[in-house]
TrEMBL record:
Stretches assigned to the XdhC- CoxI domain: 15-75
Highest taxon, organism lineage: Bacteria
Pfam families, A to Z: XdhC_C, XdhC_CoxI
Residue intervals of the XdhC Rossmann domain: 176-311
Organism: Fictibacillus terranigra
Name assigned to this protein: XdhC family protein
Length: 326
């Protein structure tokens, strides 16, 4: 998640900086509402597009840093005549972007959002933009008491030319629990971490389940299946993958995990192996077996790609159907 990278950068900054926020998208774009780009003394952190508007935003950020006045800009990438932004960008939408200076108050608020996310809390950001005809007045509000099940659509929720209201739902990193610490689990853990997941690895072998073997894991839990579940505190938003390659351990992992109500459960290996783990040919519809999208993958890295592709598909497509586009 790019917000975590931006918060990490804000943590160490001693000077004022500027942040650009994608408020609204019409048509197609590389990123969606809520994307952020931070300009600071060491360069920039985050993204708004695939590179087609960043140069102009950087120029604007210098002016915003000097005079402190926010800027609202619309990039029209739909027009064939728009040679500056439209040609070769791969996008064909309109981007509505706000550029504002990060003062100590906003910096503290964003760092507080980061702490709330790490505590597992969802935060609603409400940004009000009011024009008095000469300048923009920006007010930022953050609600840390928001319930996870509340449906919020990211983006502009009100605009009349003078008054705009933008909302964005910050959510904690989605958690992936990997049962098994083999070589292929390393590839899954690394790719999951790089794509914004909080990764927990569980295994009964301490020689395999450690930070030297899994530097990308957020949490490591060593223990046999019956010992692990009390420590995990699984919930309905969690994703789980069973891939220890030990039939008896996988069988116990699966029998325990089926008692939980998880967002996603996948089992590595052919379908007949999963039937053996369950001792039935009736595999529940919610159980992904064989795990991953059918892309003809071979080897740990390609298998990791297929697994993460399936996890992302489940997460993103369900979110869109709920009305919250993240």
């Amino acid at each position: 998640m790019q917000f975590y990278e931006i918060a990490d950068r804000l943590q160490g900054l001693k000077e004022h900086c500027v942040i650009a926020t994608l408020l609204h998208v019409e048509g197609s774009s590389y990123l969606k509402e809520g994307a952020m780009l931070l300009f600071h003394q060491d360069g920039k952190t985050g993204m708004i597009s695939a590179g087609c508007v960043e140069s102009d935003l950087e120029e604007r950020s210098r002016q915003v840093l000097l005079d402190g006045q926010p800027q609202f800009v619309v990039y029209n990438q739909k027009s064939d005549e728009d040679l500056l932004w439209g040609t070769g960008s791969g996008c064909s939408g309109m981007l509505y972007v706000l550029v504002e200076r990060v003062d100590e108050n906003l910096r503290g608020q964003l760092l507080d959002v980061r702490r709330s996310l790490e505590e597992g809390r969802t935060v609603l950001h409400r940004k009000e933009c009011l024009s008095d005809g000469r300048r923009l007045i920006i007010k930022n509000f953050f609600n840390k008491e928001m319930k996870k099940e509340t449906i919020i659509k990211n983006g502009l929720i009100k605009t009349n030319g003078e008054h705009m209201v933008f909302s964005y739902r910050f959510e904690p990193k989605r958690r992936l629990v990997i049962f098994g610490a083999g070589e292929d689990a390393k590839a899954v853990a690394k790719l999951a971490s790089e794509t914004g997941w909080s990764v927990t690895v569980c295994d009964w072998r301490s020689a395999l389940c450690n930070h030297d073997e899994f530097p990308f894991a957020d949490h490591l839990i060593v223990g046999f299946p019956s010992e692990l579940f009390d420590k995990l505190a699984l919930n309905s938003e969690d994703f789980a993958v069973i891939m220890s390659h030990n039939f008896q351990q996988d069988k116990e992992f699966l029998s325990l995990i089926l008692k939980e109500n998880l967002r996603y459960v996948g089992v590595l290996g052919p379908r007949n192996r999963t039937e053996g783990l369950l001792e039935t040919k009736q595999i529940p519809a919610f159980l992904s077996s064989p795990i991953g999208l059918p892309i003809g993958s071979s080897g740990p890295h390609e298998i990791a790609v297929s697994i993460l592709a399936e996890l992302i598909s489940v997460y993103r497509l369900e979110k869109r159907s709920e009305g919250s586009i993240l």
